[in-house]
Specification:
Elements lengths: L1 E7 L7 H14 L3 E7 L1 H4 L6 H18 L6 E5 L5 H10 L4 H5 L2 H9 L6 H15 L5 E3 L5 H18 L8 E3 L34 H10 L11 H4 L3 H13 L4 H8 L4 H27 L2 H30 L6
Parallel strand pairs: 1-2, 2-3, 4-5
The structure holds tryptophanyl-5'AMP.
């Protein structure tokens, strides 16, 4: 049986990139595998987070997972910091991770270049914690957006290093699952930049909490070139903003970009943008509504998260004992 682990940082609202690049695929994978979906709050604190806001953000992100279709009867939903084996395995893996591997991580380079603050070890060692998140479950598959690909390659390298160093075949090498067309949703303001929570302009992204008017307004204002839509993919991919909007449309409707072009070739933005806004509202409004409903009962969300953490702890403590046995460390039993 496949085992899946994936997660998101619970920092503010999720956006359309998180939904199309990851969450939508997680929902679809629930019937094929044993799934663990977490709120990566230990990763979130690599940049300063107000404590109460962080805790509340985990609840809100959990509500977003469930509203989008994560079914807690099928999948385990939990907060990373409530499952201590992640951090413990990270230490063991860090003893086998050469600095050179971390120096290659483009996300670290980008984040540390942007930050005016001190360079912190947490941001640097972030990918080792990510490897531990995955390996402590002995996960076989990890569904993510394109931007996490390099971190997953590192996870495979670290798993291989552990197996080789101790002469065991303990950790499976996890497969990245970068699925569908929308693996890298771009900013609505600049088709060469990824849609991201940290972009200063809220108009660069569609948040899962935006209402219908806001979604329509953001799509209307999205940067585009003046030309009508082409009738073939080769011409589309030369136009990043156009490609992004067509990709979003295709992904929201589970169609291919080619089939969207077949319908809209020759149409101008005055036709395509309102059609896209209608689709986006139709798909996202029920999620936003459900999220609001779930958040009315935070006690129930906490109950789900505690139950999930207990389940995750049972498996990860077992694996941690096995790892400690291999390494020559001590456990209580
Ligand atoms: P995070 O919180 O940045 O993003 C969560 C998921 O959303 C995807 N994503 C996108 N996909 C398409 N287009 C975009 N513009 C876009 N922006 C984000 C990400 O690829 C990701 O799948 N380090 C991770 C969280 C994490 C994790 C893990 C993931 C911690 N441990 C173990 C998998 C396995 C992160 O910061 O994701």
């Amino acid at each position: 049986m496949k085992r899946i682990l994936s997660g998101m940082q619970p920092t503010g609202n999720l956006h359309l990139g998180n939904y199309l690049g990851a969450l939508k695929n997680w929902v679809a994978l629930q019937d094929d595998a044993e799934c663990y979906y977490m709120l990566a709050d230990l990763h979130a604190i690599t940049v300063p987070q107000p404590p109460e806001k962080l805790r509340q953000s985990a609840r809100e992100t959990a509500a977003a997972y469930m509203a989008a279709g994560i079914d807690t009867a099928k999948s385990t939903l939990f907060v990373q910091s409530a499952v201590s084996a992640h951090a413990e395995l990270m230490w063991i893996l860090s003893t086998l991770t050469p600095l050179g591997w971390l120096n290659r991580m483009t996300q670290y380079k980008e984040k540390s270049a942007k930050s005016q603050d001190l360079e912190l070890l947490g941001l640097y060692s972030y990918p080792v914690l990510m490897a531990a998140d995955i390996l402590i479950y002995k996960a076989t598959h990890v569904p993510v957006g394109e931007d996490q690909k390099q971190h997953l390659e590192l996870t495979r390298d670290i798993a291989g290093a552990f197996n080789r160093h101790y002469g065991v075949d303990y950790f499976p090498l996890p497969e990245p699952q970068i699925l569908g067309d929308a693996t890298r949703v771009m900013s609505l303001r600049d088709g060469t930049k990824k849609m991201s929570k940290s972009d200063e302009s809220d108009y660069s992204r569609i948040n899962l909490t935006d209402d219908a008017d806001m979604i329509a307004k953001k799509i209307k204002k999205a940067t585009t070139d003046p030309d009508a839509l082409p009738d073939n993919l080769a011409d589309l991919v030369k136009r990043p903003e156009a490609d992004n909007l067509v990709t979003i449309y295709a992904s929201l409707t589970d169609r291919t970009r080619a089939s969207v072009l077949e319908e809209y070739a020759g149409s101008g933005w005055g036709i395509f943008k309102p059609a896209l806004a209608d689709i986006a509202v139709a798909k996202l409004a029920p999620i936003t509504e459900k999220m609001r409903e779930l958040l009315q009962d935070p006690v129930e969300i906490d109950r789900v998260l505690i139950h999930g953490a207990e389940h995750a702890n049972a498996l990860t403590q077992k694996h941690l004992r096995e790892v400690k046995e291999i390494v020559g460390l001590w456990s209580l039993m």
